[in-house]
Amino acid sequence: MQAVEQQQPLYRRRDYTDELLRAFPGSQVVNAEGSVVDLPFQLSSGRSTALRVSLPQQFPHDRPVLCVLVPLQHPSVDPSGRVHVRGLERWGALGAHHLFPQRAGIPTGITPPDLVAVIREAFEAILGEAAAAKQGLLGGPASADSVAGSAARGRDSQLVSLAGAVASPSPFYDNNSNSLEPSVFMEGLPTAKLREMLENEAELKKAAATWLKDTPAARALEDVRRQNRAAAEDNRALARAIEEARGHVAIVRSGDYATTRALFEELYKRQDAVLAKMGTTKLLERLRQESDKTDAASDDLLDRFQMADLSVEAFVEQYVVAREAFHITDLKRQAAEHSNLT
Predict the structure, then answer these.
(1) Who's near 213: CB < 8 A, 6+ residues apart?
(2) Which of 149, 163, 316, 327 has its CA 20 to 30 A from that of 310?
(3) % of the chain beyond a pLDDT of 90
(4) Which of 130, 116, 99 is nearest to 39 (CA)?
(5) Alpha helices (runs of H) in the chain, residue ranges in sequence order
(6) Does the global pTM surpass 0.70?
């Protein structure tokens, strides 16, 4: 009785697995227990991948886990590839009085159609309703292209029997996204290899490295490294181009420097010559001389008038002209001095 109870959860999960295989042709069971199933589909970019459905030990009471094998940026997919849809979030939220009745060997609880509906909801969220329907993932007939692709794949692949045998790899899978679970990887190794790994830690590490390099995370890391190497090469080439440009600029500057300096010195000398003749100091000096000259001329007229050398009419006329010239020149001098001070 105890052995039967221990086998019952495994039997239940295989019932659900069988339901998935019927609902999604081309699906593959990954492990011998039938708790992990890969449902192949195609992204909008044309890349082939699969939705991995993992049924926990306490399924259907515990919710299933849905993961996309290829790293995908999507609102419904987290960075680890795990899919989040409303049906999963509400899994098991109904009380016992809402559960479906037992059917044909399926235990009371959430039935296979409910699991299929959640998976179809995930496909619709990831691909959109039209694309998912075109690939036959929403329950309707697939498009002609999808049917032809499935038929071509069917010639090279096989489904899993309810006995738990794992199907052979399907060409639908992208080789870059079909990584095995550790248990499946270990089961595929010969006994002699397993014994060698138990006895030799280096062989164990080598086998672990072989498995790790085929995981989605390792491939994504390798893609990032490849992109970084390409970016580094581009940066090095750009740095060399910048250094060459700097060298050309230095050559041009050194060739033009002597000519430019000679021209500058010539213009500077011409400016000094002009300032020597027409500068502020020279202008003030000339205005002072002119002011003194006009002032002396008016004094000379006054002396001549006092000595009776000029008539009154001639003195007045010439003296007014001389003083007017003096005042005009003196005002210019005062303005120039004020401008020079400010």
Answers:
(1) 222
(2) 327
(3) 6
(4) 116
(5) 2-23, 86-89, 112-127, 129-134, 144-154, 182-187, 191-199, 201-212, 216-278, 280-306, 312-341
(6) no
